[in-house]
Amino acid sequence: MNLQTYLFFGDCCEEAIRFYEGAVGARCEFILRYKDGPPALIPLNGEELIFHATLAIGDTRINMSDDSERAAIGFGGFAFLLHLDADSDAELAHANLAVGGEVQMPMAQVPWASQYGIVLDRFGVLWKIQSG
Fold first, then answer.
1. 3 state SS of 22
2. Is the model more confident about 89 or about 71?
3. Which residue has the higher pLDDT, 132 or 109?
4. Is 49 helix (H, G, I), strand (E, B) or coil?
5. In the predicted model, what is the mean pLDDT of residues 66-89?
6. Region 97-124: what's the mean pLDDT?
7. Are strands 60-65 and 5-8 parallel, antiparallel or unpaired?
8. According to the model, what pLDDT value does residue 71 have?
9. DSSP character for 67?
């Protein structure tokens, strides 16, 4: 058994995939567009939008989709905790995720990590980044 996260991105899922590939080295393992899914679920003029995608970040899988109805609710009540071995990698991930987003806590040494910071990325996803 395993439990995976599913994120909904209005009509910018593909943009989010490319952003996370560059920001944290994510790997897109699978993309299915609405035009290739069940015809009854294709949104108006949404044939090229993402019906389902799977992104790998390290050993973790994140599933994502373009779904305007669910995305309108917004992200809340959770954060991703990204642990990196090297301080320099954590600082780079923090800086990359902050592009177009908001730094909520700059990277700093804390009792539980040699570097720790918090970023709300440009898609509204909260990231806690730590190393050490």
1. helix
2. 89
3. 109
4. coil
5. 88
6. 97
7. parallel
8. 66
9. -
| In the block, residue with structure tokens 């700059």 | 106
Angle at 127 (CA atoms; ends 124, 132), nearest 5 degrees:
170
**Beta bridge partner(s), residue 82:** 129
State the burial class of residue 16 (Cβ atoms within 10 Å of its Cβ: 0-12, 13-18, 19+).
buried
Q: Which tokens is 78 given?
A: 């959770």
The pair of structure tokens assigned to 99 is 């592009």
Euclidean distance between CA atoms 109 and 115, whole angstroms: 5
Cα Rg of the chain, angstroms: 16
Question: Do 23 and 96 contact (CB within 8 A), yes or no?
Answer: yes
Q: Which helix (H) or strand (E) holds 94?
A: helix 87-98
Residue 114 contacts residue 87 (beta carbons within 8 Å): yes
Q: Residue length, the chain? A: 132
Q: How far apart are CA 41 and CA 72, in angstroms?
A: 18
Average pLDDT for 91-110: 98
